């Protein structure tokens, strides 16, 4: 079976501005795939390139094995759900859902039948005759999904469709979207800047920054095994300490830093003398770790109790702030306490310093 | 060669110019911008180009250019047009100044006077209408309740669609020697015999002011309405006197509306045909009847075109002056 | 302005004078339409009559002019609304460099005196039809329609442009994405969105054409419209039939304005009902989500 979507050397430039640089990617049929990145990272441009609103400046987009060059958005087997949903206000809910069939010339009775089925699928049976302006946010969301599914696309593209909903509804819709995807079994490509959304829903995630796909992998991989400093700091909270590699041994390396000699894993094969960044998650830091060999001194600035966890902000010798998260509230330090912070070398991660630093 | 052939070549030049502009802007390796036809599809793209092309060229630009061209040509019988006598000349403009095609001995005071009276009176009427309309527009936009606003707007919209001629006619009924105003004046003993308002041009000026009152009030209202009421409140809290608020807060904000209303009123006054015809006395000086006579009394079209062009120049100068004084762009006053 | 009682009285007085000035002449004229004297007269009322209306309808020139005006108005709507629509769409798509020049060209008729538009239309089309031997185009009705179209299309464009600027492009993209062709997007999405503006533009176009005199008087040649006949009658002298015509126009406008007001109120109500429905649905939805 051909891949659902293949990107090969895709570049998109607007004048001088490079929106997407050299994207290579294969998305499998039936996959729930997310693009995660801050706004302006090029993820929406990439989505619009896949759906056909933008022709890549260089490179090719293949859908179901077929090169899409020269196919406009109305000729591609994709359906896009817009950030603002873009429902048609002058049409009823049923007309909205049936629009794609109408322009394909599907006969009326067949169309009505299909629309009825879709209304049942998204639990809007009673609302077919209503105008879009009479619906709640969640109902509009479901109309948009039904409208896109009606044309039986092989790939469904979603451009942050949940961002307008309030938090409670958003979490509910995540589960619903995932359930719909499992049921219809087609490829979903989802765009978001919200890592929670990406991590909970996706089979795989591509993390993007400044037009470049930095890493592709499942949620666990991008969280636990980031391959670039950007991914390490964008996905989840992370502390980073800069230094120079002193020595390397079986997958580990020691780093000379202003806070002393620290040690962490060395997955990218840094060599001694290289400038590097050490990443340690707040939950991997242990406070008052006086016996620990890998660690540094700090002074507590702020203690924020949050029920199940407590966030402790520390200031280290260089003035940099470091965050540690400890379970529960017991044993939390008081403010202005000087203490030693330690971590296991396996929880430290060394990555090359990007050239621009 | 008939100048019309030259003029008909212009569309080609324009099309080429627009195509070049499109080319220049479209170059570079930009990925996104779809072409005009790609974006609209062929049938609609063609409709757009034909409709706009026909409008801009054949209805607006070419007639205007041709009129200007004609104004620089002598009056000739149709058979001699395009012939050896059809050369460019200033004689039509010379006639406006000296009342003769050849002699420059005497000034053509009648026409010159009428021209400048028209311009000057139009400016005065414009200012007068602004003064009359501003308080009401401000009241409607800022302090009237929603219900009262609806009533006021309704009262304004109804007379808006009454034609110029009928408005002027209403004034004639009002001001004629047996009209209600003269009856009232005599009844009050202010005058012993009817006052001839029309001969004194009072009727004309009042009629013009009346006819274009509403073209001042709507732009003013729209502009003042968009001003945030809090700004006025804030200024009043700071102790600004009322005239200060109007001069430094409301009017600067309403500048586009003021400019728009003034331009419209001025343009309609100088170009008014019906009102001077209905309300003008025998010695009334207004420029448009003179232009009209060039065409349909004397059948001297080139001269008429020259006179029309003078009027157009006056309007352009006025618009440019307004734009310069207010520092606005054209797009801001034509909304 | 908040003000003392003196200022408030002065302001009320001003409003009263304003509306007397604005409406007084029309009222006077309307009264004279029902008064018997030959010369339009308000006072003394010598007797009530509707005879002037009868005379108006019996005036064959006036009726012929009325029919021509209707025809011209209709044709102007048919030409100006499509042109205005095209003009507005082009305005949103044209390259920024060319836009200000294009704007200047298409808006200039709004700021040009009507007689100049009439004159330029006549002189140009006389010459054009002569050299191309299409003399049948040199016709009063056609020339008047063309003259009116120049500035009325600009009005239409400005009205349509105002709404077009609020158009959400993603609607168009959504339709395309669902497989619609470009003409289908235009028909199904853009036109319905612009419908209210197209309707306003059509009404405005008809009224502007119907009441126009300045351009018409030059472009109409030997034909007659209501306004040119009217001008001729007024020039000949004052008769109450003219007052009768004005009275009818005012009455029709008043009815139309009231009808518009009613329609708008009903639409407002419908909009409010829809928003209320949406709010109810929103509440029900949040209530139905199981608590975590």
From TrEMBL, chain A:
Residues 5-235 form the ABC transporter domain. It is found in: Cell inner membrane. One of its GO terms (cellular component) is ATP-binding cassette (ABC) transporter complex. Keywords: ATP-binding, Nucleotide-binding, Transport. It comes from the Bacteria. The keyword Transport applies. Pfam families: ABC_tran, TOBE_2. It is a peripheral membrane protein. SUPFAM superfamilies: MOP-like (SSF50331), P-loop containing nucleoside triphosphate hydrolases (SSF52540). GO terms for molecular function: ABC-type transporter activity; ATP binding; ATP hydrolysis activity. InterPro entries: AAA+_ATPase, ABC_SmlMolc_Importer, ABC_transporter-like_ATP-bd, ABC_transporter-like_CS, Mo/tungstate-bd_C_term_dom, P-loop_NTPase, Transp-assoc_OB_typ2. Its main location: membrane. The keyword ATP-binding applies. Belongs to the ABC transporter superfamily. PANTHER family: SPERMIDINE/PUTRESCINE IMPORT ATP-BINDING PROTEIN POTA, SPERMIDINE_PUTRESCINE IMPORT ATP-BINDING PROTEIN POTA. This is ABC transporter ATP-binding protein.
TrEMBL record, chain B:
It comes from Ancylobacter mangrovi. Keywords: Cell membrane, Membrane, Transmembrane, Transmembrane helix, Transport. It is a multi-pass membrane protein. It holds the Pfam family BPD_transp_1. Residues 115-322 form the ABC transmembrane type-1 domain. InterPro entries: MetI-like, MetI-like_sf. GO terms for biological process: transmembrane transport. SUPFAM superfamilies: MetI-like (SSF161098). Signal peptide: none annotated. Its main location: membrane. This is ABC transporter permease. GO terms for cellular component: plasma membrane. It is found in: Cell membrane. Belongs to the binding-protein-dependent transport system permease family. CysTW subfamily. The chain crosses the membrane at residues 42-72, 116-137, 149-170, 202-221, 258-279, 305-325.
TrEMBL record, chain C:
It is found in: Cell membrane. It holds the Pfam family BPD_transp_1. GO terms for biological process: transmembrane transport. PROSITE patterns: ABC_TM1. It comes from Ancylobacter mangrovi. Residues 66-260 form the ABC transmembrane type-1 domain. SUPFAM superfamilies: MetI-like (SSF161098). The chain crosses the membrane at residues 12-34, 70-90, 102-125, 137-164, 185-207, 242-263. This is ABC transporter permease. It comes from the Bacteria. It is a multi-pass membrane protein. One of its GO terms (cellular component) is plasma membrane. Belongs to the binding-protein-dependent transport system permease family. CysTW subfamily.
